[in-house]
TrEMBL record:
UniProt entry keywords in alphabetical sequence: DNA recombination, DNA-binding, Transposition
Organism of provenance: Paenibacillus gyeongsangnamensis
One Pfam family per UniProt: DDE_Tnp_IS240
Top-level taxon of the source organism: Bacteria
Domain Integrase catalytic, first and last residues per copy: 68-232
InterPro entries for this protein: DDE_dom, Integrase_cat-core, IS_Transposase, RNaseH-like_sf, RNaseH_sf, Transpos_IS6
Coiled-coil regions listed: none
Protein name from the UniProt record: IS6 family transposase
Biological function: Involved in the transposition of the insertion sequence.
Amino acid sequence: METELDLFKWKQYESEVILLTVRWYLKYSLSYRDLVEMMEERGLHMAHTTIMRWVHEFGPELDKRIRPYLKPTNDSYRTDETYIKIKGQWKYLYRAVDSKGNTIDFMLSENRDAPAAKRFFKKALNSPHNQSPRVITVDKNPAYPIAVQHLKDEKAMNQETVLRQQKYLNNIIEQDHRFLKKVIKPMLGFKTFGTAEKTIAGIEVMHMIKKGQVECHHSSVLSAVELINKMFGLIA
């Protein structure tokens, strides 16, 4: 992980300004040009491409730095994929929340198949804030039973884990997709898979903070600002 000095070195603007624009873009339904206008009202003149570079740089960094602060999720996984448009083509965002709506994990994928589902579950199982699932609720996608069985065979998942294919039980994850879709809509599609991945990582972090998934975090705007500044070493 880069140090704070490396991250903000040679940047034209102060670290607080950079994190402010990144945070707003990832949290609200704004385009880059909206943010340029909002910053101009504050006497700050920046190109929309500058903000875009910051988002691509700090989105994944936020995801890395939030992980140690996340509260434990429970052992009931609600898993689903949603569609993300990249360069005019639909790709697949795998997402899971627990039975209380807390984000377990997410993963952007070129494909919607058993190897992709398996990679997603492995990512979720390797994240320290998650526990091994007691039950996984999914839709009728035939890839899920294959992926889960492979993980059980490899002893990466408990043999006792129950897989339920009941779409109506997954309303909680479908509702959760809406926040993401609302923020992504003004972005008018992503140009590359890599930039989509970086941006979505940041959006997911802001969503987790909003849902109160962070240790010692009370869901006020101010404490979200303080948390992010602390993660980047800007406050003790």
